[in-house]
Design goal:
Blueprint (H helix, E strand, L loop, with lengths): L7 H7 L1 H12 E2 L4 E2 L13 E5 L1 H18 L3 E5 H4 L11 E6 L5 H12 L3 E6 L5 H5 L2 E4 L12 H20 L5 H22 L2 H11 L4 E6 L3 H16 L2 E6 L16 E5 L6 H13 L3 E7 H6 L6 E5 L7 H4 L1 H14 L18
Parallel strand pairs: 3-4, 3-5, 5-6, 6-7, 8-9, 8-10, 10-11, 11-12
Antiparallel strand pairs: 1-2
Bound molecules: fructose -6-phosphate (F6R).
Fructose -6-phosphate binds next to helix 3 and helix 10.
């Protein structure tokens, strides 16, 4: 049921505070303030994690790499399942394979998962559909609990996947002695606050709709970010492509000089995702480089970032201030809403984009 919303995608974007609240509640113990990851995975004894996935789930997995390596000092490889399954990857049995999949049925992801199992690896699946093939075939199921996702473009499943991986990063950090109990509790508190901040972030919808007017006229759009904002830049570009049919590319902002800057002209909106964090100055300097070439910058930052930003951004979208731990969740709604409103302005069929299927069960 769409309720008062025009599209499932719009509803699912707005469902995210509640969705990720449910997700987080399943992975933390609110009484003790500790993470609570079931399945008996011994994070301390793991040599590495191999994440396999496709599309948006792959991008969520990439976010997981940033989180898990930073906090738990545990090596994480993330690979597109369709590449992984055919290239004879070097694997050792002491690693854990994690299949990320909203549907739990994606053919390439399933094949990549089975390949790892065949090499003797323990397996886990981060899925929405708990009755799915992947859920049945793994040692451990980590459900994302966000409720059925109907819109073909994944939104609430993405934030729920990222929420699970954040909890997992905290749990692994604790198990591996990288953080103490007090720090775990501090991080869990931050995570528990995330749904409120995601709700705040959704309130940026009017500001984003105004940006969408401009973006809808573009032929190409660039998305740039550093650190965890890099996967989000990829996700922003993927969302825009799939529902508005505007060509978009997500890049690590540091790669700008190594090629994509050649695309920058007065007609190309450049969305820069840059909370006021340890990467900010570098992102601000990329913003200057883009503006010096006439690029139209859409700057998504927070109040501190707005104050410290070089002047001249075409538009600034001011997201709620948040700890870097939860920024991947808080900065997701603005890029989803941007894609959504551009698609609506272009009259596209948002919930059923052309050529796309919700679940890709053929390779
Ligand atoms: C993009 C999108 C797809 C899916 C991909 C994987 O919005 O929805 O890229 O993420 O097809 O699907 P699952 O997660 O079901 O394996």
């Amino acid at each position: 049921e769409k309720g008062n919303y025009r599209h499932f995608m719009e509803k699912e974007i707005h469902d995210q505070p509640e969705g990720c609240q449910r997700t987080i509640a399943a992975y933390v113990d609110t009484l003790t303030g500790r993470t609570d990851i079931s399945g008996g995975i011994d994070f301390a004894g793991l040599s590495r994690i191999q994440i396999v996935a496709c599309g948006t789930s792959y991008i969520a997995g990439l976010m997981g790499k940033y989180l898990i390596e930073q906090f738990a000092d545990l090596p994480v490889d993330v690979e597109i399942a369709s590449e992984f399954r055919y290239r004879h990857p070097a694997l050792r049995p002491d690693g854990l394979v994690v299949a990320m999949s909203q549907s739990g049925e994606t053919a390439d992801t399933l094949a990549a998962l089975r390949y790892c199992q065949g090499k003797g690896m323990k397996s886990a699946a981060v899925v929405n559909a708990t009755e799915s093939t992947m859920a049945r075939e793994v040692d451990v199921v980590w459900p994302i609990h966000c409720g059925p996702e109907i819109g073909v473009a994944s939104t609430k499943a993405f934030t729920a996947q990222v929420a699970v991986l954040t909890a997992l990063a905290i749990a692994a950090a604790r198990a591996r002695g990288k953080i103490d109990a007090a720090e775990e509790q501090r991080m869990v508190r931050l995570l528990l606050e995330a749904p409120r901040l995601v709700a705040e972030s959704i309130k940026l919808e009017d500001a984003v709709r105004a940006v969408a007017q401009e973006v809808s006229k573009a032929r190409d759009v660039l998305y740039l970010g550093r650190g965890p904002m890099y996967p989000l830049a990829l996700e922003g570009a993927l969302k825009l492509k799939e529902i508005s049919y505007i060509h978009a590319e997500g890049y690590a902002a540091g790669e700008l000089k190594h090629g994509p800057i050649a695309l920058v002209d007065e007609q190309t909106p450049i969305v820069i995702l840059a909370p006021f964090d340890s990467y900010f100055e570098k992102s601000a300097s990329n913003m200057n480089e883009v503006m010096a070439r006439g690029g139209q910058v859409v700057f998504i930052t927070d109040a501190d970032g707005e104050r410290h930003a070089p002047s001249g951004a075409r538009v600034v979208v001011t997201a709620p201030r948040c700890d870097p731990l939860v920024a991947p969740l808080v900065y997701a709604p603005p890029i989803q809403l941007l894609a959504y409103h551009v698609a609506v302005l272009k009259g596209a069929d948002v919930d059923q984009p052309r050529n796309l299927a919700k679940s890709v069960t053929v390779e």
